[in-house]
Amino acid sequence: MPTTDEREATAARLLKISAGNSYDPDVDIDWRAPLDPQRMFAPAHRLSLYGTPLWDGLDERQRIELSRHEVASIASVGIWFEMLLMRLLLRHVSDQDPRTGHVQYALTEVGDECRHSIMFARMIEAFGTPAYRPAPVERALGRYLGATAGGVQTFAAALIAEEILDALQREAMADDSLQPLVRMVSRIHVVEEARHIRFARDELARQVAASRRGLAGRVSLAYSRLMIGRAAWTVTHSLIHPGAYAAVGLDPARARAAAWANPAFRETLRWSAERVTSYLQELGLVEGPARRLWKASALL
Ligand SMILES: [Fe+2]
Ligand SMILES: [Fe+2]
């Protein structure tokens, strides 16, 4: 069957790229270099309050501080998501033949994500901020997804989180006004995530095509659309922890409401996800009742 050959061809290509271009954050990052107190941690126009009256009320030092906490929050949620993805990938390959390139590449990706999570953790440590976490209900949903997700949900959820982070990090790594540590971490992550995104895109298309073949698959596809829409909601609503606002002296509930009403922040979310949103639309995964979740996530 051609899909098996395609699957193995993708895996062979990605295994070769991984062997030739992988980083070791332990040696590739200078962890002892001090942070520059004058530099932002993210471009100002990507911060959630940018352009709001609350933003206008912050001085330069508070804006830098907000950028430090927002990036720490995104990295913390990134770790949470990568840990979930590692569980999903291991479940995905547990019953498959380990001699295949597909299984070996999935294990390679688990290895990448493991290094990424340690890299993000050390970056947050270097920032001196808390490790922010998604809300308890989102963490409960994550545990549920981690225990139950099939292939469609696994690779769609992976793509949503990976593509959003990728868009933000591509911009950060190219911006020489930012903290060098943020730029280097972003660069390493962008290089290694490019192959994860390729893997998830190809596998997701195959999983969706396979589900369409039978009635049971079509029923489970309808359920998957809802779960994927809910995952999108979790990602956008967890990115910026309200504690980031409290860290610069703002009322967290008021600032969070201002961020969600901020057209610039909503546009940042939509922009960061536009590649994955349009791909999932092409695959018919953003249809029916799930569209409401995508709209509430600010991604449509
Ligand atoms: Fe990663
Ligand atoms: Fe990844």
Q: How would you summarize this macromolecular structure in one to three sentences?
A:
This protein is mainly α. It has helices spanning 2-20, 25-28, 53-56, 60-93, 101-127, 136-148, 151-174, 180-212, 215-238, 243-246, 252-260, 263-272, 274-282, 290-296.
Secondary structure blueprint with pairings:
Layout: H1 2-20, H2 25-28, H3 53-56, H4 60-93, H5 101-127, H6 136-148, H7 151-174, H8 180-212, H9 215-238, H10 243-246, H11 252-260, H12 263-272, H13 274-282, H14 290-296
Helix pairs in contact: 1-5, 1-8, 4-5, 4-6, 4-7, 5-8, 7-8, 7-9, 7-13, 8-9, 9-14
Bound molecules: fe (ii) ion (2 copies).
One fe (ii) ion binds near residues 113 and 196.
Q: Strand tally, please?
A: 0
pLDDT averaged over residues:
97
Percent helix, as a range, is: over 70%
Tell me about the largest β-sheet: none
Q: Radius of gyration, Cα only, in angstroms?
A: 19 Å
Taken as a percent bin, the fraction of beta residues is under 5%
Give a written overview of the molecule.
With 300 residues, the chain is mostly helical. Helices cover 74% and strands 0% of the residues. Helix 1 packs across helix 5 (101-127), helix 1 runs antiparallel to helix 8 (180-212) and helix 7 packs antiparallel against helix 8 (180-212). The model has no long low-confidence stretch (mean pLDDT 97). One fe (ii) ion is lined by residues 82, 113, 116, 189, 193.
